Amino acid sequence: MASSSPATSVSPLKKVLGVLGPFFGLLLVVLIFTTMLGLKDVADQMGKDNLHGWSGWARAARASGFDGFQAFVSVANIKTVLAQTVIVSIGALGMTMIIVSGGIDLSVGSVVALTSVLGALLLNQGYSAGMVILLTVLAGGLAGLTNGALIAGLRLMPFIVTLGMMGVARGLAKWFAGNQTVNYPIESTLSGLMKMEDLDHLFPLPHGVWVAAGLAVILALVMRQTVFGRYIFAIGSNEATARLCGIRVPLQKVLIYALAGLFFGCAGLMQLTRLTQGDPSGALGLELDMIAAVVIGGASLNGGSGSVLGSMVGAFIMQTLRNGSSLMNWPTCTQEIIIGIVIILAVGLDRLRQARARAG
Asked: Which residues contact residue 158 at a Cβ distance below 8 angstroms, ignoring those fewer than 6 apart?
């Protein structure tokens, strides 16, 4: 959902289109994969029965059980996609604040890996589940606070600072883990956060899905109903004007990155519970999925616009792409190519929106 800063006048039609845009994108992705999976099922049936031509195609269509299509639209698969979206969606919440404020964070994947390793180590040390949750999330917040302090205090480019933090966090994760995965007691109560139960019915959903939904509601209220939220949009729209209006931009940037870091720490916690281990080499490139989710959701990389709902839908689109590609039996390299193209298209769409906005 593309939404502008409070100071910008947006027509009602553009607001509606901004809200519905990401949903149209999701619908398009679903339609593409349902069509392709249906055609694949028919083609497989033709090969199995050695059929040829249009008549063979018609016979195969009648005989096919459309297993791939049914698997894609099944309740079990929808539930699985929702669970798999949790990590990206929670991280995308933090990325939304950063991008709307005109910044960027390339260190997210490394911070997620670091916090997952720290969580596993703490569990092995006998810390309670509540203390592990608190310390893991705070570790992400500390990484974000460091980024924000360097960006605001030294007036460094977010790209450079977070690129450096990417290496630092990844190195610390490998150091703490001894360059190996860190397993933790499977009987820990944290293991139930992402546990899938009763795949024949949509409910109950994994607890992590509800955590992501709850955090999204809270952040949406913060960004829309609080002074801090308005400051985020104002800084992203025009930082110089925000300074002239009396906004303490450096302080706000530190708060934005620190709060985003808490979301990244929470994403690391979900990564830990999903894998049931801390992996210092995991979450590679995760920041690209999060950035793509935010941009697909209507945010501008120039800052000043974006929404929580759009970012959540964008995260779901990214995971649907991966899920559909897997059901098509495409190799991992093909999936990565598709995701890369989607990221380029998302950025291109952002540029087109900006050009049209300037022309209008």
From this structure: 98, 103, 104, 105, 147, 151
How far is Cα 3 from Cα 11, in angstroms, rounded to an integer? 11
From the list 251, 209, 207, 258, the residue with the least C-alpha distance to 87 is 209
Distance between CA atoms of residues 243 and 159, nearest Å: 22
Residue 219 DSSP class: H
- The Cα–Cα gap between 224 and 118 comes to 33
Backbone angles phi, psi at 214, to 5 degrees: -65, -45
Q: How far is residue 356's CA from residue 360's CA, in Å, rounded to a whole number?
A: 6
Distance CA 219, CA 256 (A): 12
Distances 11 to 8, 16, 62, 224, 237 between C-alpha atoms, Å: 10, 9, 49, 18, 18
| pLDDT 10s digits, 123-165 | 999 888 899 999 999 999 999 999 999 999 998 999 999 999 9
What residues have CB less than 8 Å from 149, skipping those under 6 apart?
A: 254
Alpha helices in the chain (DSSP H): 12-49, 53-63, 67-73, 75-100, 108-124, 129-153, 158-177, 207-225, 227-237, 239-244, 249-275, 286-296, 308-327, 332-359
CA angle 113, 314, 117 (to 5 degrees): 10
How far apart are alpha carbons 109 and 281 in whole angstroms? 10
Distance CA(35)–CA(192), nearest Å, equals 35
Q: Which two tokens stand for residue 124?
A: 């092995």
Contacts of 139 (CB under 8 A, 6+ apart): 114, 115, 118, 265, 268
pTM, two decimals, is 0.89
**Rounded distance, CA 317 to CA 192, Å?**
25
CA distances from 28 to 24, 55, 75 (A): 6, 30, 19
